[in-house]
Write a structure and sequence with these properties.
Blueprint (H helix, E strand, L loop, with lengths): L5 H11 L1 H22 L5 H32 L1
Helix pairs in contact: 1-2, 1-3, 2-3
Length: about 80
Amino acid sequence: MEITNQEEIKAHLLATSDEFRDLHTRHQEYDRRLTQLEAMSHLSDDEQMEEVRLKKLKLHIKDQMTDLLHRQEVHAN
């Protein structure tokens, strides 16, 4: 089975990799919470700190997912 593009690789990893699925789920959870925070007209200091923390965590997870995608892409070729 040849995996040819990034979306196919992502779908393959979602189907076969517990690590990738976990990262994807956490990324979505952080994104949902950030959307909630961004919808608020005023954030408390704690909410502002949470927003910054979630953005950093989300970026870190995205980097990990990108690394897994790249490794799978290299492995597939």
